[in-house]
Design goal:
heterotrimer; A: mainly alpha; MetI-like fold; 2 domains; 12 helices; globular; B: alpha/beta; D-Maltodextrin-Binding Protein, domain 2; six-stranded mixed beta sheet; four-stranded mixed beta sheet; 20 helices; 14 strands; about 45% helix
């Protein structure tokens, strides 16, 4: 009786939300094995079963699915690593060093993130179009160009997130190092980076996922079939002028989300602490 | 001491940089590449055609750039400034008015011999203020099919279909009577509008547009009431949205569907025996009018900046407007070719023939200047689906809404005259 | 270890590294200036100078830490914002898209008309008398042949030329055709060239093999900055809004126009033009309602779950693993799936509920659907952060309150919830700001609809400011980037001030001092 009163409602809430969470995902799974290539929203029990959609992804020469996957991984991993390397030092400066204009700097950083990025789209396009004119390898239509834009976009969020983490790392250690005569650079590399390593990993993971999902910039930037990312490639299945191929889209999305889900599930402890650390202090 | 080193370092880095820079500064030769932008369906096929035969313009190489989707292509065309861009865009006919107005497209004049290879209404589709901006490439139209496993006699009138739906709804588990699978609730659904008496613009007997007149709203509204409504509610015959139409048609739960000619093959592949026809009108023997439009290979104004304008024009004439070019391309792309020679010489499928004959029974030109115009408050494309929603979903009065629709379309047609 | 940072080797390494990066940047700089991209060139100069200055002197230690981040922010975030700000003061829309010089070139190019019969000629491009650019033209029907240069026409007899099987002239005396390889180099010049036919008509190229007969309709008067119609004498002058307009009939403009500065016109339209203002106000109200209710519902459900699963009950790990799936799945995919599920006739939701609701066609239901989907996307995040925050609340507090005789409900409402809100308020504000601009959801789920277009609605019922603005900026038939930029600047000011206020209020910024 006591158990019931204490725990039953917990399970009721849990099961209800689990069903809510899993229902659309279940439809994706059965759409991916539906040979008619359409979105399976009509019946909850798969009428037919076939691997056709999956085979299409790997066998059809016009669909370089593995190349898309590789492109996505290369771009997302690069953004994840580079953006953390660059933003970590900024976050360190904002958190630990004293300088004039620090407070307004932080506020400005917060403010420019509020700009509706979608609407700066044409501006970014125009800038990269110009870059393409003089440096064809870094401009519009190239992966390095897209990488640069992503890095710029990730900077604000990452500095902001990382600063939250850094604030939560006790300052005693670097104070001590300072007294021992270490320069700021040394404190950063020898004390701060090792301490913040798990936190850096979480932020880079979040950048990875964000980059992996992005498609509006990517579809404008990456034109050639072979240079597309997975999000753009998959969106192509359903963004046709007249036709929508939901089957391969569902199959492709499922495969693409497997690595993210696995990373998520295995690192959930870090991610939770990562998401809250910015606000929960001391 | 440090400063000295720093200066040396600076000097070193700049010296390195300049020497690199000078040695690698690109030499700008005259371009011998003609750049074509296309969507994910046409792009790969054009690439193959160009790989098979490369000398469409002597001395030039044609480079096809394929976008991930038609939307992505449109987005890039809209975002491109006058700095970069393609020489030719393979796009929709309704990109012509905006592209020309904004100075993104450039006109072309064809010889009489080339002109004779196309239907003049196709040129009309790709023209703005009397100038032609591209070459017609594919024909796009829709037609109605019915599932012969369900419907044994060809419907002679709109009422026949409604009667069939009402009598068999329960017994055969029908989810709808007629739905739009291809072309959407404005372009694809024009046949249904027209079958019930609402045409986007009225034509005179001589084939010219009648500017002073719109369709008769009370006649149309009463037809909607009689055939599509059950009191104030939809009778379920005609859904107000196109989602799921194809699936349900293939599953046998919808007997009639409007489909596009580009997706015909997928119905054949699904193992269906079906017949193609225009949507029958309320009086037996009449039909709802369907839009026939073309996609075009459009010349851009960037071509002149690239120094490839004459070459791009040559490619348009030698490849896109030629029988040989369209045959080679449509052999892969499998849409109905626009060029007359290709229409007869290509291996035309039965589906393409069916669409062709449906179009000859009930086709009207798709005049972007009227349909894209929104001086009446909304374009045809936005107002058409809104009518279905208002009447079939919100239960608003079909005649009152039809009056609003008629007023919007009439204003659009009159003010669209200026863009012809 | 310290030696690594201070030694000569380290210094040499640093210099080499800097030199390498500077070299790359200077390389780009030279190329940029070579291509006349001066704005980017100047930016690169400043970057190189700043780079060497920062790392080779000891002016500012903090600068050493955030210089790379700063450059990226300036180049890819601040620059686009500045660009958008500039564009908001321009008449920058369909019809006024290119620069003025380019517009003049194009008007001149378009202001030609073919002769009455639309005559065309088969041509060969080449040189006359060895140097003069010329075409050898044939009218195969009329059997008319001539050579035409920029300033004269030399008629030829059939005996002067050699023709091919189509009766097109291939060779003529004193005329040398360009080889295929030479054509590419000559294209730019040839496309602009006008070959003499009569004093009124000229021939322009329509490809390398075809020429068409035209005459000029408009003349550009460079000194007056105006166009003149040759036949009627009508004058078209710069109307200050990016078009040449007929001075006698200002409505009659020449196309294309160019993007021209109109200062605050886009902004004043926002407030004064009822056609722009009214939908904007409606959309703004819904945007706030949408953002607030999304945050509240996601937070409420996340909190409920976090409370339910705060105890180590059986199967908690499984619950947790499944519950974060919506957060881990690519959102583009899940939104599109939800779109299919809400379909009236065939969708899973109506089947499940046994209803026939037209979700996306009815204003209320569409709004409910949008919030439900956003709840699905958002609750796992709040579940995760609330669980974290719950663990951070010291348990002594609750215990002390329990000893004082407070009921669990009192403990929750008096202690736990206020503390949670305090801890999570920056995240709630961030989530509000995110949802305020949640473009993907609206764009992919409802496209902003439904819209009572027949009653003159321009904005849809679920359109939020950003999706509505996107429609204005990148809509299918007309694009108004100027107006859209002005709206985005206003959105920016709104969100920024709301967030700043919220953050000041929650005292998060205290630690920045």
């Amino acid at each position: 009786m006591n158990w019931l009163r204490e725990n039953l409602w917990r399970h009721v809430v849990g099961i209800f939300m689990v069903l809510f969470a899993i229902f659309p995902l279940y439809l994706v799974v059965i759409s991916s094995i539906n040979p008619s290539g359409s979105l399976q929203v009509t019946s909850f029990i798969p009428r037919e079963f076939s691997w056709k959609n999956y085979q299409m992804l790997f066998n059809d020469p016009t669909i370089p699915y593995l190349t898309w996957m590789k492109n996505s991984l290369v771009i997302s991993v690069s953004v994840a690593l580079l953006s953390v390397v660059i933003s970590a030092s900024s976050a360190f400066a904002f958190s630990r060093l004293k300088f004039r204009g620090k407070k307004s700097g932080i506020q400005l950083l917060l403010l420019i993130q509020m700009f509706p990025a979608i609407l700066a789209l044409s501006a970014v396009y125009v800038i990269m179009e110009r870059v393409a004119v003089f440096a064809p390898h870094f401009g519009l239509g190239t992966q390095p160009g897209l990488l640069l834009v992503y890095l710029g976009g990730a900077m604000g969020v990452n500095i902001w997130l990382l600063k939250g983490f850094v604030d939560s790392i006790p300052a005693e250690l670097d104070e001590a190092a300072k007294i021992d005569g270490a320069s700021a650079m040394q404190t950063y590399w020898l004390i701060f980076v090792p301490l913040a390593a798990p936190v850096l990993a979480v932020v880079s993971l979040l950048s990875f996922i964000g980059t992996f999902n992005e498609f509006i910039l990517a579809r404008l930037f990456l034109v050639d079939m072979g240079s597309r990312t997975i999000a753009v490639g998959l969106q192509g299945f359903i963004g046709g002028q007249y036709s929508q191929n939901w089957g391969p889209f569902a199959a492709g999305s499922l495969i693409a989300s497997v690595p993210i889900v696995i990373i998520f599930l295995s690192l959930q402890k870090y991610i939770i602490s990562g998401l809250t650390a910015g606000s929960v202090k001391g | 001491m440090r400063n000295g080193k720093s200066l040396k370092a600076l000097a070193l880095s700049l010296a390195l940089a300049v020497s690199f820079g000078v040695s690698l500064t690109p030499v700008h030769a005259a371009s011998t590449e003609i750049l074509v932008w296309a969507d994910e369906s046409r792009g790969p096929n054009l690439t193959k055609v160009m790989a098979a035969k490369s000398d469409w313009v002597a001395g030039y190489k044609v480079v096809i750039r394929t976008f991930s989707s038609f939307d992505a292509l449109k987005a890039a065309v809209d975002a491109a400034t006058d700095l970069t861009g393609p020489d030719i865009i393979v796009g929709a006919n309704d990109w012509v008015p905006t592209g020309a107005k904004s100075g993104k497209l450039a006109p072309i004049t064809l010889t009489a011999a080339v002109k004779a290879q196309f239907n003049s209404s196709q040129f009309f589709d790709l023209s703005y203020k009397g100038k032609l901006y591209g070459i017609p490439l594919d024909i796009n139209n829709v037609a109605m099919i019915y599932n012969t496993k369900l419907v044994t006699t060809k419907p002679a009138s709109f009422g026949d279909m409604v009667t069939y739906y009402k009598t068999n709804k329960v017994a055969k588990g029908l989810k709808a009577g007629l739905c739009v699978a291809g072309g959407g609730m404005s372009w694809g659904a024009h046949q249904v509008f027209s079958a019930l008496g609402a045409d986007a613009y009225m034509m005179k007997k001589d084939g010219t547009v009648n500017y002073g007149q719109s369709f008769n709203p009370s006649l149309f509204g009463n037809n909607v009431k009689a055939y599509l409504l059950d009191g104030k509610k939809s009778n379920g015959f005609f859904p107000a949205s196109d989602t799921g139409c194809k699936d349900n048609f293939l599953a046998g739960t919808v007997p009639f569907a409007v489909i596009g000619n580009w997706e015909w093959q997928s119905y054949v592949d699904a193992g269906f025996t079906m017949n193609l026809m225009p949507v029958p009108g309320v009086t037996a023997g009449t039909y709802g009018k369907m839009f026939g439009s073309v996609s075009g290979a459009l010349l851009t104004s960037y071509a002149a900046k690239h120094g490839t304008e004459a070459a791009a024009k040559s490619l348009l004439v030698n490849f896109f407007a030629s029988t040989a070019g369209q045959v080679a391309y449509q052999a892969l792309e499998k849409r109905p070719p626009a060029e007359k020679g290709a229409q007869t010489s290509a291996g035309v499928t039965s589906g393409q023939k069916g669409f062709g004959s449906a179009a000859s029974l009930a086709g009207i030109p798709q005049i972007g200047a009227f349909l894209n115009n929104n001086k009446g408050g909304a374009s045809y494309w936005d107002s058409a689906p809104a009518y279905w929603t208002a009447v079939l979903v919100d239960g608003k009065d079909p005649i009152k809404e039809a009056r609003k629709l008629a007023a919007i379309w009439k204003t659009n047609v009159i003010s669209g005259q200026a863009d012809l | 270890m310290v030696a690594f940072f201070r030694g000569k080797l380290a210094f040499a390494f640093k210099v080499l590294f800097l030199a390498g990066i500077s070299a790359l940047l200077v390389l780009l700089l030279i190329s940029a200036l070579g291509q006349k991209q001066y704005a980017i060139g100047i930016f690169l100069i400043l970057v190189v100078i700043g780079l060497n200055f920062t790392y080779l002197t000891k002016v500012s230690i903090p600068l050493k830490f955030f210089y790379p981040g700063l450059i990226f922010l300036l180049g890819f975030v601040v620059a686009p914002i500045v660009f958008t700000l500039t564009m908001s003061t321009y008449n920058y829309k369909t019809g006024n898209y290119i620069g003025k010089t380019e517009a003049i070139t194009q008007i001149q190019k378009l202001a030609i008309e073919p002769d009455a019969s639309g005559s065309t000629f088969d041509i060969i491009v080449g040189k006359y008398n060895g140097t003069e650019s010329a075409i050898l033209a044939s009218d195969t029907v009329k059997k008319q042949y001539f050579i035409s240069t920029y300033d004269k026409r030399i008629d030829l007899n059939v005996t002067d030329i050699k023709v091919n099987e189509y009766q097109v002239a291939r060779e003529a005396y004193n005329f040398k055709a360009l080889a295929d390889a030479e054509l590419a180099g000559a294209d730019k010049l040839l496309s602009k060239s006008r070959f003499f036919y009569t004093s009124e008509f000229f021939i322009a190229l329509e490809g390398f093999d075809v020429g068409a007969l035209y005459r000029q309709k408009l003349n550009f008067l460079a000194i007056q900055d105006a166009f003149q119609n040759i036949a009627t004498g009508a004058i078209y002058k710069d109307n200050g809004k990016g078009n040449y307009a007929n001075v006698d009939a200002p409505g009659e403009i020449l196309e294309p126009g160019w993007r021209a500065p109109v200062w605050f016109e886009n902004y004043s339209k926002l407030f004064l033009d009822p056609k722009v203002r009214e939908p904007l106000i409606r959309v703004f109200i819904w945007t706030v309602v949408f953002a607030v209710s999304s945050v509240l519902t996601s937070f409420a459900f996340g909190l409920l779950l976090a409370l339910a699963l705060n105890k180590p009950i059986r199967g908690r790990r499984i619950y947790r693993s499944i519950l974060i799936l919506p957060y881990a799945m690519p959102s583009v995919m899940s939104i599109l799936i939800w779109g299919g599920m809400f379909n009236t006739e065939f969708g899973a939701i109506n089947q499940l509920l046994g209803t026939d609701i037209a979700w996306f066609q009815s204003v209320t239901f569409a709004r409910v659907a949008v919030i439900v989907v956003n709840l699905w996307l958002g609750f796992p995040y709040f579940y995760l952060v609330t669980s974290g925050a719950l663990q951070a609340i010291p348990s002594e507090l609750n215990e002390a309150a329990a000893i004082d005789g407070a009921s669990p409900r009192q403990i929750f409402s008096k202690i736990t919830l206020p503390l949670l809100l305090r801890i999570l308020s920056p995240l709630l504000i961030a989530s509000f700001a995110f949802n305020f601009n949640n473009f993907n959801l609206i764009y992919l789920l409802t496209g902003g609809g439904p819209k009572s277009t027949l009653d003159g609605d321009i904005a849809g019922a679920t359109d939020i400011l950003i999706s509505y603005t996107y429609q204005i900026a990148f809509g299918s038939f007309t694009q108004d980037l100027g107006l859209a930029s002005a709206i985005s600047v206003v959105i920016f000011l709104l969100v920024a001030s709301i967030s700043l206020y919220g953050i000041r209020k929650s005292k998060v910024l205290e630690s920045f001092v």
